[in-house]
Amino acid sequence: MAGLAGLALVDSTSIGTLIIPIFLMLSNRPALGRRALVYLTTVACFYFVIGVALVLGLLPTVKAVGELADPRFFRWIELAAGVGLFVLSFRLDPKRKREAGDRSSRWRERITRAGNSSAGMVALGVTAAVLEVATMFPYLAAIGLLVSADLSPAVWVPVLGGYNLVMVLPALVLLALRLAAADRIRGPLNRLGEWLSRHSGDAVSWAVGIAGFLLARDAALHLGLFQFAVEIDL
Known about the structure:
Keywords: Membrane, Transmembrane, Transmembrane helix. The chain is mostly helical. It has helices at residues 2-11, 15-25, 32-66, 71-89, 96-114, 118-132, 137-149, 153-181, 186-223, 225-233.
């Protein structure tokens, strides 16, 4: 569960879950709190539905194949995928920094076009989630961990719901501060938004690396590799 919480916190720093909410908070439009809440609820619910669909789609396949093959074989695949993602994180193109900055500018324009309506915020949230879902490596890694754990729906559904709540929690905390402190927090929020925009390219590398590490760690624990290493040391 600690690994899932770590992945959720990494996901909470993406453009859709933090940078766009900060841009929303910097505006002086009416009903700021309601608009931001509608956006964050849309993003969290969208990812929750996608997560449920992925788990339900993958579980039967994993169970069916698992009956025909050694379960350890799939742990070795998980280990290889985790190591591969971790290595890939060091080789990501540094030009992503500039691309991330360009995306942030485009999102500012989309926020302006979304207007003041709740329908506009819902559309903005769905658009952000759809465009980012393929690059949410921590979320996909979390889905993989839930599937590999072979949990019952009574367990994995609330866990997935909690994951999505943690994913938008930093934005909710900042929103509460924005509403409580009014314009006094606009300066720090603006600096944070600009900093995140400049460094969101690095966040992709970190996300891939952390997702790979947690996948590899989970596989190594189930394969008993850490115990094996301790025995060799002794």
